[in-house]
Amino acid sequence: MTIFEASATFFGLVEDMEHELKLSAHCPRYIFTSALVGVAFLARVMKGPFASYLDLDRGSKLYRVAIDFLKSCSIEKGDLPDRSSTFAEQMWLSNKVFKNPDGTPYIALRVRTRLSGSPLHDAIKWWRDEFMEERDEDRQGAHQDSLPAPVSGEPAMSSSINQNTAPLTDFSYASDLLLNDQMWGDLGLGIDDWALSGSIPWMA
Fold it and tell me: Collapsing DSSP states into helix, strand and coil, what is residue 171?
């Protein structure tokens, strides 16, 4: 409840400053990063086992404020704020993030070696686990459909997929960019070299 209240209060202040000062037009990096962390907090607690103790109407409204704020920080399609708002929105709409395989809430952090950044890293990992699998399945199907039928006596073409062939200017499928270190590298949050819980005992 304390985490929820702190996050909700933060986004309430962001909403006020956006109306009064157009905060997104000159948003400092620490405000933007705090908004991303707040999104991770809100999504986790509102999808968690203690949701019935929270003001979900208020939380849902402020989560939308957070998404709109991230979008307002964007100056061109595909930049970091634009991609971050897509990440936040898709995470909110997902029925798999912060859930066990049987659908019950999973509240504990799986990424616990990033200190104060762990909640955001953990949310990215949950999101990535779902959308990486979905993207790869879609690409695999599309690739197989596009392969020519093998000539009799010849082996079928390889189904290997180069995941970096999509142009960065094509934002039709946001996961291609969101799963790329170029997004999280902007924040110093590279995802390919994550240290997961237990890999560094004294920090776990």
Answer: coil
- Ranges of each domain in the chain: 1-145+167-204
Question: How many whole angstroms separate alpha carbon 18 and alpha carbon 16?
Answer: 5
pLDDT digits (tens, 9 = 90+) for 90-116: 999 999 999 999 989 988 888 877 777
Q: At what angle do helices 80-93 and 118-146 cross, to 10 degrees?
A: 90
Buried b (16+ CB within 10 A) or exposed e, 118-127: bbbbbbbbbb
- DSSP annotation of 157 reads P
* Burial of 47: CB neighbours in 10 Å, binned 0-12, 13-18, 19+: buried
- What is the pTM for the complete model shown? 0.65
Selection from 172, 166, 87 nearest residue 121 by Cα: 87
Q: Which stretches does DSSP call E strand in the chain? A: none
